[in-house]
Amino acid sequence: MGWNKVAVIGVGMIPFGELFDKSWEEMIEEAFLNCIKSVDKGFNPKEIQAAWVGVARPHLHGQGAQGGVSLVGNIGLAGIPCTRVENGCPTGSDAFRNACFGVASGVYDVVLVGGYEKMRDAPTSEMLGIGLEGHPLLTLSETAMTMFAPQATRHMFEYGTTKEHMAMVAVKNRKNGVLDPYAQFRQEITLEDVMRSPVVCEPLNLLDCCPQTDGAACALLCKAEIVDKYSKKPVYVAGVGCGTDYYYAHEKTTFTSFPATVRSAKEAYRLAGIGPQDIGIAEVHDCFTITELIDYEDLGFCEKGQAKELIEKGVTERTGRLPVNVSGGLLCKGHPLGATGIAQIAELYWHLREEAGERQVEIRKGYGLQHNVGGRSISNSVVTILTRNKD
Amino acid sequence: MGWNKVAVIGVGMIPFGELFDKSWEEMIEEAFLNCIKSVDKGFNPKEIQAAWVGVARPHLHGQGAQGGVSLVGNIGLAGIPCTRVENGCPTGSDAFRNACFGVASGVYDVVLVGGYEKMRDAPTSEMLGIGLEGHPLLTLSETAMTMFAPQATRHMFEYGTTKEHMAMVAVKNRKNGVLDPYAQFRQEITLEDVMRSPVVCEPLNLLDCCPQTDGAACALLCKAEIVDKYSKKPVYVAGVGCGTDYYYAHEKTTFTSFPATVRSAKEAYRLAGIGPQDIGIAEVHDCFTITELIDYEDLGFCEKGQAKELIEKGVTERTGRLPVNVSGGLLCKGHPLGATGIAQIAELYWHLREEAGERQVEIRKGYGLQHNVGGRSISNSVVTILTRNKD
C-alpha cells in the first residue's frame, strides 16, 4: 500500500523568526548543513544529483527571477540541476512534490529540496502584494486577511462555529509552540488573550493570525530502493497531491471550504492508498485559526461543519487522538512561504522517527499528513503523506 | 535507445510580438486553444490531469506570486494541479522538463505545460531587474548585455571570432524568420545592416540582440504507452537535462563557454543515449548572436573555438547539414522567457512531423535539440531532446 517510490533521508531547518541579522544565503546554508548532518549514516553533498527550491517572492528582497541557482549556488553545489518552484503558500511543499517526481521518474537517485523566504526585509504591504499587483480583476483590498475573514464569517453562520472555537486553535498551537525550538512564538496564551486581542479583520483578531516570518528548511530524498544506504529508520513518501481553485474571488463556489485542499487531499490519499482515518499526525495550514478548522473538514478528519467538535473535545491536541500542528503550526512557527511546507515535512519526519524530543507524540497510525493552501483567492493546495510503513 | 517515457501530442503558440492589445490571460487562452486543436485524433481538455506553467517575472505585470493557477484558472481547468516553475531564461523549458517528470513518475498520464511572459507592459529596465534587485553582490550594471558582451570579447580574443561571424548569425536567423508566421521580426537583413547598427554594449550591436517580446506557448504530453490514442506521428522526449553555474559573476571560471549549457547537454545526451552527432535540427538560445556561436561549442556541434567555421560554411543554415534556429531564433521570434523554451519545442515538433510548411527542413537525423541558457550570471540551462524514433 502506498506510492513509496521516494524516501526522506534527512531534514534540516533553522529557528524561524525576524532574522534581520541573516541574509537569505545564510539562512539556506544553515538549513542545508543541518539537513546534511541529520542523515543517519553520514552523507556527502556531492551525492546530490539535482535540486528543487521553493521561494515565493524573492523579488521583494532584491533577488528577482534567478531560478534554482539561488539554492545550489549558495551551498557549494553550483553545477547540478535546480528548478525554482513558486506556488503561493504551498511553494515549499510543491517544490517537495516536484522533487519527488524527479526521483520517481527514474532520472535521479538522490535529490535535495530547499525552501526559504525573507519576509521581514520588505514592508508587509509589499509582501502581501499590495501596490505591486495592479490587476484590474483583483481589488486592492484582496489581502490574506480579507480572503480568509469571509470564510470565518460564513462558517460561523452555516455551522455555528464561534470566535471561541477559533481562539481554541490559537491556544492549542501556542501551547505546542512552547516545546518547539524552531518556533517564532514560544509563549502560552489563554482563550481570553485571543478574544481580547485587537481585531485585524472581523472576525479575525490579532492572535488568530500567523506572523510575517523569515526562515529556511531543507530535505534530502532518495529513491526507495537505496534508502538503507543512508537511513536507519526510513520514512517514505506515501503520496503527494496538488489541487487548484478559481483564480479570482468572484468565481468562488463556496466560502466554508477550500476546494483546492479537497482536491489535493483526494489525490494524495489515492496515491497513498489510504484515507483520513489512517492519519496519525498532521501539520496543516493554519495561517489563521479559521483555516485550521476548515482544514479538518476539507482533509476528511471530520464531517462538514464538525470541526468545532474536534477542537472542543481536544482530539487534535498534542495528546489527542489525532495531533495537529504539534510544531505550533504557522501560528507559532511563522509562515515563510518557501520554507513552510518543508518545515512541516521535517516535523512529521521527526515524529515518525520518534525523535521529536519533548514534543514527541504517540504515533497511533503510521501516516503523517502535511498540508498547505493559499495563493490568490486561496486557489492552490498541496498535501504530502509520509509513512514509516514500507509496504 | 532514448528515455522515451513521455510523448508530445500537441503544441500551440501565438505570434510573438509587442502585444499591447492582449492581456496575459488572452495570450494563454489562445496558445492553449491552438495546442488543443493540434492533436491529431482530437482532444478533450478534461483529459488533462495536471499542468506546469513557466513564467519568470509576473510581478512586473501585476500578478505577483500566484502559482500554477494563473494557467489552469484561465483555461477552464481550475481544479487540477498546476506548478509554477521559474528558472530565468530556461523558465519555459524547465516547466516542460518538470512536466516530463510528472508523467515519467507514473502519477499522471496526460499533462499540459504552458508558458507566457508579458515583457512590454513594464519598462525594459524593470524587466531586466535593474532597480528591483539591489543585492550587494550584484552590481547595478549587471544586465543581459553586460553579462554577454564580455563573452564575445573574450571569444574574439581567444579564438579569432569576429564581429562579422556574429553578424552572420543575425543574418541567418533573420532570413529564417521571414518564413515563420510566429516571429516578431520577419525582414531579411544584410551583414552591413548588422555591422552598422548602433552599438548597445561593445562588441554587441543592436542587431546582435533579441528584442523584448510578449508571447505564450503550450504543449501537451502523455505517457509513451498511450500515445497512439492521440497521435498519428508520435514525437517522444528522448532526454531532458538541466545544469547550473555560479550565481555571481565574480565566481565565473570561463568567459568563452557557458558551463551550465555543457552540463545540461551532457545530462540530456546521456538520458537520450545519443551524442551531438545524432542531432538533425536544433533550436538554441540566441539572445545575442555570440550566444548562438558559443552554444555550437557547448552543445558539442563543433570543437571549442570552431563555431566560426560552422557559421562561415553555412552548416547551420536552414538548408545546411545541421539547421539551427530555423524558427528565426530568439533574435527574430523574440524571447518571452516563460514561453521561449516551449515555443522552441513546438518548432522541433513541427519539423520532426514534417509539418513546418515553407520552412520545413530535411531531417537527416531523427533527433531535435532545444536549448536555453540564462538567468543571473548566465547560470541556468535546460536542454530537451525530441525524437521520432520510438526505440
Topology (elements, then pairings):
Two copies of one chain form a homodimer.
Chain A: E1 6-13, H1 24-37, E2 50-54, H2 69-72, E3 82-86, H3 91-104, E4 110-117, H4 124-127, H5 144-159, H6 163-177, H7 191-196, E5 199-201, E6 204-205, E7 215-223, E8 235-244, H8 259-272, E9 279-283, H9 289-298, H10 307-312, H11 329-333, H12 337-352, E10 367-374, E11 380-387
Helix pairs in contact in A: 3-12, 6-9
Percentage beta strand of chain A:
15-25%
Helix/strand-derived category of chain A reads: alpha/beta
Number of folding domains of chain A?
A: 1
CATH H-level superfamily of chain A: Thiolase/Chalcone synthase
In CATH, what is the class of chain A? Answer: Alpha Beta
Oligomeric state, counting identical vs distinct chains? homodimer
Mean of residue pLDDT of chain A?
Answer: 93
Q: What is the tally of helical segments of chain A?
A: 12
Biggest β-sheet description of chain A: 9 strands, mixed
Any overview of this molecule?
- Two copies of one chain form a homodimer.
- With 391 residues, chain A is of the alpha/beta class.
- Chain A has one domain (6-124, 210-387): Thiolase/Chalcone synthase (Peroxisomal Thiolase, Chain A, domain 1).
- Helices cover 32% and strands 18% of the residues of chain A.
- In chain A, strands 3-2-4-7-1-8-11-10-9 form a nine-stranded mixed β-sheet. In chain A, strands 5-6 form a two-stranded antiparallel sheet.
- In chain A, helix 3 (91-104) crosses helix 12 and helix 6 crosses helix 9.
